[in-house]
Amino acid sequence: MNRRFIDYITILGLIVLPLRFLAVAADNRAEVIVRYNPESPTRGIQEAVDSIPKTGGSVYIPAGRYDLQTPIQLLGYKNITIKGAGPGTILEAPEDYLTFLAEDVAANSNRIKIKAKGPLRVGDALSVCDNKTSQRLAVLVQIAGFGGKDTVILKQPLKRGFKVSEKTYISRSWPLLLAKVEKCNISDMQMTGSLQKNYRGYSHWGRNSVLAVNGAREGSCVRLERLDIHDAPADAIMIGGEGVYTIRDCRIVNTKERAIHLGNWASRIHVAGNYIEKAGLFGVYFCHGIQNTIVSGNIIKDIGFYRTGGKLFDRSKKWTAKNESFIARHIAGIGGLGGGAAFTGRGPNPKDKAPGSTRNIISNNLISHSSGCGISFLRREKEVERPGKFINITGNTIEDTDIAGIYLFAAEFSSVNNNIISGTKVGIDIFRSASCSVRSNLIHEAKTAICISSDKPAVPATGNLITGNLFKKCGKNVVNETNIKK
């Protein structure tokens, strides 16, 4: 063999091999397999999480039923993966429980007296809240023992005091998995909430979400994939904070409020390929200031409905005394707040008001059977100066909605194009919106195919373009109540 060729091979090996070993070392993160422990409140899962460094690692949860007594918490990790064995890995909430405070309790106390101890166990987590506090700020405590008939001894003292006069209540309802992370993958497991386990009726998106994930900083990357979530007593998935989020290939069934909640000021979100059935309010919900988000390829059905205690509830019936516009703003397959927050101090900059939702795409979704709308974006009355802009609604199929197929309330520079809408009162309702494009939609069996209107001269529906739409079996084709271009 040529000596020069051998020298080349030797030199190349001296360069490549150290680089290879360096790459392996850089990816050598801790890997832990959960060992089921019936004595642990999380059945061994939290212990496995705590065993890996904050710089990251992976936790594998084998198949089995893990009946949790307290949330699994992923706090401060920079690169963590939580993976199950598919539908065989089941994280399950305990039976719902609710009671009220029997005596006032001071801050830093480790005892609370309640009206009824009920089925509580040592190790159970409790959410403590009152009617003067936002429920998302509820205090989470854990039971260390019992001191008499109705006295609960806490593992850690309360951070604040509570009063009986403020109707303080104690609930055994909390997220099964609570995360504040920078980079995180959660996948391949089933999660079951307490909606059909003696559900008592206290719901809030922050306190009762089955899965709550908050990006710790800008640049965070969170992926939620192949999750099977059932019976959420409030929202199934709640995300918030700055970062890049992906929610895909999940199956979410029977949610009391919102199946997927995109929290305040989250951005760069991709929600794709999910199956959502029976959600009391929204399939996919946009909160204030959602930007740069794509919701595509999802199947969403039976919105406005949820099941608990063997009964099926229709959320729209409790609002029959209100007008249809109210229901349209509160029940939809996809939608939420197009405007920004009407208050300061809650955004990334405490001095700024949140912007409206902008640069979002809603495409190629199949939405059927909603007691409100198929797609609905709105603003609250105080948010007129912060409209939702650049919302692109295209290629969706929407059928059997009670109020409207697509409803835009005070949007600007947005488009509703190439959608198929069938079986509704109003196919496309453009209300107080300006400079929007409505074109090439197929609307079938609607009392009114397209309605462009405004009830306030100060917020006219002007400069909208309506062209190239096809109507079949509609009572009225286009209702023009303001100046529009055809």
Please give a structural write-up:
The chain has 486 residues and is mainly beta. The chain is built from 4 helices and 42 strands. It has a 34-stranded parallel beta sheet that branches. Strands 7-12-9-10-11-8 form a 6-stranded antiparallel beta sheet, with no helix packed on it. The longest helix is centred in the N-terminal third of the chain and has 24 residues, at 3-26. Mean pLDDT is 83; it is low at 8-27 and 340-352.
Give a brief outline of the structure:
By secondary structure, this protein is mainly β.
List the helices and strands and how they pair.
Elements: H1 3-26, E1 30-33, H2 45-50, E2 57-61, E3 64-67, E4 72-75, E5 80-84, E6 89-92, E7 98-100, E8 111-113, E9 125-129, E10 139-146, E11 151-154, E12 169-171, E13 177-181, E14 183-192, H3 205-208, E15 211-215, E16 221-232, E17 237-240, E18 244-248, E19 251-255, E20 258-262, E21 267-272, E22 275-279, E23 282-286, E24 291-296, E25 299-303, E26 305-308, E27 311-314, H4 324-330, E28 332-337, E29 358-363, E30 366-370, E31 373-378, E32 388-394, E33 397-401, E34 404-409, E35 411-412, E36 415-417, E37 420-431, E38 437-439, E39 442-453, E40 465-467, E41 470-472, E42 476-480
Parallel strand pairs: 1-2, 2-5, 3-6, 4-13, 5-14, 6-14, 13-15, 14-16, 15-17, 16-18, 16-19, 17-20, 18-21, 19-22, 20-23, 21-24, 22-25, 23-28, 24-29, 25-30, 28-31, 29-32, 30-33, 31-34, 32-35, 32-36, 33-37, 34-37, 36-38, 37-39, 38-40, 39-41, 39-42
Antiparallel strand pairs: 7-12, 8-11, 9-10, 9-12, 10-11, 26-27
